[in-house]
Design goal:
Elements: E1 8-11, H1 18-32, E2 37-42, H2 48-53, E3 57-60, H3 85-101, H4 106-128, H5 138-145, H6 151-164, E4 183-187, H7 196-216, E5 221-226, H8 235-247, E6 253-259, H9 262-267, H10 269-276, E7 280-284, H11 288-298, H12 302-305, E8 316-321, E9 324-329, H13 337-342, H14 345-351
Parallel strand pairs: 1-6, 1-7, 2-4, 2-5, 3-4, 5-6
Antiparallel strand pairs: 7-8, 8-9
Length: 352
Amino acid sequence: KRLMNGNGCILATSGAGKSFFVKTNIEQINLRYREDEIFVLDPQGEYNPMVNALDGQIIEISTTANTYINPFDMELQYVDEDNDPIKTKIEYILAFMESIVGHLTGEQESIIDRATKRIYERYFINKNKGIEVEEPSFPVFYNELKTYQEDEAKNLVLILERYVQGGMDIFSKGTNVDIKNKVVCFDLHNLTASMQTTGYLVVLEHIMNRVARNKALGRNTWLFVDEFHILLSNTYSADYIAKIFKIGRKLGCLPTVITQNISDVLKSEQGCKILSNSEFAAILKQKTLDLNAICKIFDISQEEAKYCYSSAPQGQGVIVYGEDIVPFRNQVSKDTYIYELNNTDGMQVARG
């Protein structure tokens, strides 16, 4: 909170102690800042024991869970007062659609832009007139597309059918998620690989509205996004997470991204920007080529980099805190409750 911004990143290879470090960090924040809220995006279901120990809340997002988030919810309190909320929503819906459809053509982008704009304009016009109207949702958007005659629109309707009316319809229902705790984990591990980026985007949009609410209440919000490289898989979702890092400070949001797929991040322009805009970083054991690139981003000397060599012991690395770089080793006795609670080695073995 004393840095220029609250942006952070935690980078490590598999088995380096990354998850243990993150959990210890969350536990310390929970003890230190009793009024703040903490959100975790968990793609592997490994944070549940810790969240339960902190009397937190676990919200599963999957095709078999009974928890739903409407990605078209129009609660854009986090939009800058200078920006058009509908335009901001269009940018998000483009990311949402690209995560489902794949690379969007220019014509598809125009059709999605037009359909999104129309359903929101129609909603607000009728609402202001006191006319009862269905709130924007995936089915409302889908039905709007069905009225268009372009071939690309018809192709979109066909692609989206299973996500609105078929077995992948988890984002076509009204929001029933009710956040009741100060520590909340969104468990995404039962989502199929093809739906992970979509799930990340929907949950993040929901959290950002909570961030705006917390700001109004004078609270900070801590956001931990594990395996965030998933969001770098397409242009729009990469832009979305980069935007959170850009506007987080003014909203009292302290976002931290976590990944072991460093090479994917370094290949992404937005991924590199996110790292460069992070005032806090915990860097544990790295592959040699990745470490060289990371050292350039964070201005880490060769002497300091030795703590992150591929031969480094588990839990060792360097912390970047503004302009300071501090070597550390996170040593916790194996016969303690904290070790038992935070250790994920058994989970990694079970996952193969």
